[in-house]
Amino acid sequence: MTVTTILGIPTMAFFGQLLLGLINGSFYALLSLGLALIFGLLNIINFCHGAFYMLGAFAAWLLLTYCGLGYWWALGLAPIFVGLFGMAFERLLLSRLYGLDHLYGLLLTFAVALTLEGIAHQLFGITGLPYAGPKELAGGWNLGFMFLPIYRAWVVLVSVLLCLGTWLLIEKTSLGAKLRAATENPSLVQAFGVDVPLLLTVTFGFGAALAAIAGVLAAPIYTVNPLMGSNLIIIVFAVVVIGGLGSIGGAIVAGYGLGLLEGLTKVFYPEASNTVIFVIMAVVLLIRPAGLFGKEA
Q1: What pLDDT does 26 receive?
Q2: What predicted TM-score, i.e. pTM, was given to this entire model?
């Protein structure tokens, strides 16, 4: 007997919304991972992370439009460009704020985000620019209970691999141990011959590159526009707070979990889909202010 409904919802619609939630969760996880990485290791609230996501998408569009380089080239080059830009920003501006109140870093990154969005708005307008995905990932698979677009599956796969790889790098390698130690006692780590400022600069650049990869992945799904980062960054901040500020694993788990929950909410109570993440954030902060996986101060 073929199941046509789940809890009164048509099967195709139910799994379609779950897939949409998983796609959103993939972007939430990638972006919140970069935010948690930068906050956990640099102690900076990076409000221009959404702008790095937007720059990644625009870099892909520019490479295709003016250089004739398609998606695969963009997936490799855009994170490098944005990562280098992030490293320059950290070394020239952000490094001057280390040791000061978090508010200074937040204000600086917020100002940079507004500046980048304003420049993009002036150069490209507010109308979304289409970006064609790779032909190799066109089409989809009919799984019987749902239709799975190949490109959506690719986005989820890349997101999972990047999140898992980053977690392993930070938690299970000597480089990750040096990074964690540099945030706890930078002078001691420096005494052992480790270039702490370089480590912090590379860490910030890596976080920016993760956001740029998310932007390239998002370009064929959503239109490329200057506000695509600002429309997403508030949700991503909520995800990071729920997972626990500075918690790499918490950012990943909360990103995927909240994406799926958002998708289920659109099935059973669509009116609450835009607020469910913020409601959960309020509840988590009331019960556990440090977040689900964060460490109590």
Answers
A1: 94
A2: 0.92
